[in-house]
């Protein structure tokens, strides 16, 4: 079996439409809507956001599996953690598929992008866990904290609890990433720095155009949910509390917040 | 996800929102465009594409063997706001099936092609 699957070789069944994220951005720009993510005020908001997460969970499952396969010489405990993560992500993919049904959507209603899989494109397991576990799963923790708040505001216990159960797992994945990023690079400061840079690049990738802010700085905009309307965050928020639970230091969170603020200035 | 049939008699939480209905006009336009592609009717196709995607469409038309395909099937569609990606396959008696993907969106009251690409040699829907 081939190692290091490239972004253009990710297999999908016929009924799924997988397109490069640049094309999805272009399609959104062509329609005069913000390029990077489905936003409140769009009729697709909740469906689109949950769809993005469902496909992200699937790619996270594949990524952990590929990490296990791509690095057979990594410590056995590392492999066990990756196998555990595959199991977790597969449950998450199922949970989000069911949540999609719950909000009147289904897998395949929207195109899937390769953006999460692109973060696997590195041949060092320390970089892989820095990028995926700390970068992407850290981002997932922020996204989930926000959806949990949305579920609370909607008075919807199903969304709130289902996502909370997933968040509990994601927190362990980030911690696992921090542990292995450090352990795999012990005595190799340059390799550690390289892994941290890889994660920084991924964090920057998802800071696009001021789309991320702190909870306090998030502008509130009307969000349509069926025939109901409520005010909610217009940005993707960074959750300090959740990040602390994942083992990020205050300094690391401050750096993330500053990077998000910087990107909004461009 | 299997269809649960009569949802009102299913146990557990019921959907809180309706599914979007795919516009019939979009599916009809897709069918028409696929027919034009299969029969190599360039002039008609060129009237149904936004200028930016014209070269992409020409490349796709050139890749389809003229007169080789008689039938088509829409395999999948996925929405981005009000535009739709449509993945489809052309079939012919003596030619290998040809897979392609379009992005259709309304422009000046008509469904037109915003993107067109050849997926015939790809493993997935990926193309640059």
Compose a concise summary of this entry.
The complex is a heterodimer of chains A (266) and B (128). Chain A has helices at residues 21-30, 45-70, 76-102, 125-154, 157-184, 189-205, 240-245, 250-265; strands at residues 212-214, 220-225, 228-233, 236-238.
Identify the overall geometry of chain A.
globular
Structural class of chain A: mainly alpha
Largest pleated sheet of chain B: 4 strands, antiparallel
CATH class of chain A: Mainly Alpha
Helical coverage of chain A, percent range: 55-70%
- Would you tell me the overall average pLDDT of chain B? 89
Number of helices of chain A: 8
- pLDDT below 50 for ≥5 consecutive residues: which ranges of chain A? none
- Gap from first CA to last CA of chain A: 43 Å
Helix content percent band of chain B: 10-25%
Strand order of the largest sheet of chain B: 1-2-3-4
State the assembly state of the protein chains. Answer: heterodimer
**Might you state the CATH topology name of chain A?**
Ferritin
Ends distance of chain B: 30 Å
Radius of gyration of chain A: 18 Å
CATH class of chain B: Alpha Beta
Task: Please characterize this protein's 3D structure.
The complex is a heterodimer of chains A (266) and B (128). In chain A, helix 3 runs antiparallel to helix 5, helix 4 (125-154) runs antiparallel to helix 5 (157-184) and helix 4 runs parallel beside helix 6 (189-205). In chain A, a hairpin with a 2-residue loop joins strand 2 (220-225) and strand 3. Chain A has helices at 21-30, 45-70, 76-102, 125-154, 157-184, 189-205, 240-245, 250-265; strands at 212-214, 220-225, 228-233, 236-238. Chain A is built from 8 helices and 4 strands, in the order ααααααββββαα. Chain B has a 4-stranded antiparallel β-sheet with strand order 1-2-3-4, covered by helices on one side. With 128 residues, chain B is of the alpha+beta class. Chain B has helices spanning 24-38, 42-46, 54-63, and strands at 71-80, 83-92, 95-107, 110-118. Chain B is 23% helix and 33% strand. Chain B has a single domain (22-118), classed as Nuclear Transport Factor 2, Chain: A (Roll), CATH 3.10.450. In chain B, strand 3 and strand 4 (110-118) form a beta hairpin. Classes of the chains: A mainly alpha (266), B alpha+beta (128). Chain A binds chain B through residues 7-12, 14-20, 23-24, 26-28, 30-31, 33, 42, 44, 46-47, 97-98, 100-111, 114, 156, 158, 225-226, and chain B through 1, 13, 15-20, 75-83, 85, 87, 101, 103, 105, 114-115, 122-128.
